[in-house]
Amino acid sequence: MTDVADSVWICQLVEHGLVRPSFVPPKPIRELRDLTRYRKALIQERTREGQRLQKVLEDAGIKLGTVASDVLGVSGRAMLDALVSGTHDPAVLAELAKGRLRAKLPALREALEGRFRAHHALLLGELLAHLDYLDEAVERLSTQVARVVAPLSPLLALLITIPGSASGPLRSSSPRSAPTWASSLSRALGELGGDLPRQQRVGRQAPRGHDPQGLPMAADRAHRGRQRRGPRQGHLSRQPVRQAEGTAGHKKAIVAVAHSILVIAWHLLATGQPYSDLGADWFLQRHSSEAYRNRLVRQLERMGHKVTLEPADAA
Length: 315
Prior knowledge:
There is one protein chain. The chain is mainly α. The protein contains 16 helices and no strands.
């Protein structure tokens, strides 16, 4: 055990001013981070409650989810409230359908034929009440997030131009994630700029590094840009590690793209200019020098091939 010796050594370094202080984000960023993280936790809890609600319906033999795409939509919620209040007739419940769901009335009547008991009504009522509370809480937090983000709107407008950001070229399904993604850059940018000490490997313990919430998902969206936007679309989706994902692994590719996003974000904030994509062929053009071609030729010759280069138009 070297914990005591390590602690003494760290104390000596601090006494001599050889340890940089921890990075503390500005107060607005700290508040925004707290709000977005708590809101994210509530949204995740709402998803879990929806899954529990579906499990109660399955236990009662109610197959509403096989007919209605959204069990908690307008029509589904009306049917669930009617079940809790004591209405169990499938024909009466099916008549509560609205819009396009009315075209599926026969299937609805069959799906609502179950063994719904008072036990299920109690559980379903509690779940619906909790879901209502979570919806209201998320809405209140979203309102507060909008107030906190308002002074940062110029910076946010720059960041969301990066592919993979919540409102950028690769749009997320939830517009609420834009402030979350932006606030998560604070610690990572501090480390990138040298204001925050990096966590190093100690013994056999792997370095944790920075893992800001929201950034890995943004990197994943940019990393998968080729599948989403067609072949050879976008600078980030065509990084060399992206093309070698089969050998490098998906996680390493995500880390590489996340680092590129951090560098891009730093330059955008430093220059005040929006993101401008370098193009899908930028890496190929960067390596199109004569030295690079010669290196590739030497590699093929070492493999036993005879190489002759001809211009593309001549070929």
